Amino acid sequence: MSRGSVRRNSFSASQSLMPYLESFEPRSRTLAPDLRRFLRAGTPGSWEEGEEMLTTPHHARLTGEELPVDLMNTVWSGPGGVTDVLATSESTMDWIREIAPRLPQQHPSFTHWLASATPLSARMAAYDLRRLRDAVRGLAGELTGDRRQGLPPVPDRATALNVLNSAVAGAPHWPALVWRPRSEPELGVQGDVPGGVAAVGQIARQAVELFGGRDRRRLRACPAPGCSNYFLDVGRRGRRTWCSPSCGARVRTARRRQPG
Length: 260
Prior knowledge:
The chain is α+β, with helices and mostly antiparallel strands.
């Protein structure tokens, strides 16, 4: 799929997702209550993956930040409009596969899900990740005083907190000892929820730790014109200005070209 292509996948409410949703524990379904109400009501129409303006890049975009920050940076604006890495289930699965090694050790069911996720579970993962992404972007915007324009609106603080905390509560997990043949024992993670819910919950938990810990003071919004990225300034002196060298170079070049 080309970077500029628009992907719109939809399914009618008559193609009910309720059997899929009912396979979850009740607490794991709290991340998408509006979707559940829509399906139960049998409202005519369809649920679409992403908005009409959103485009999907060819590959997952990772900025090398902590996972919650990398999630924030999956949407950006440019000359061609808004680009969203999570606009479709296919691109979302690509992104999850890219970041999977950075998640805590997962139960074998998660690895199986990555390799054989059904279309419905992939759609749900995309929906939940987009919702979580918008929530953490909203909270990051409040922390950094970000007033940048050009991206889809983010929820208010109360809604964002509910989405974030519900994602964590919906994917309970606990430590497990993993000891493979011809290897050392290691600490793993075990859970009893489907793979997509587990991935969203793991990222949400890391976001809670980020916003609730000292590192939140290191969160920055890149001030380069046209950039929508966030980053963590982990330098000893805390003087990092740009999300990447390219943003800094672009700003310096623009300054040199200004008359006078």
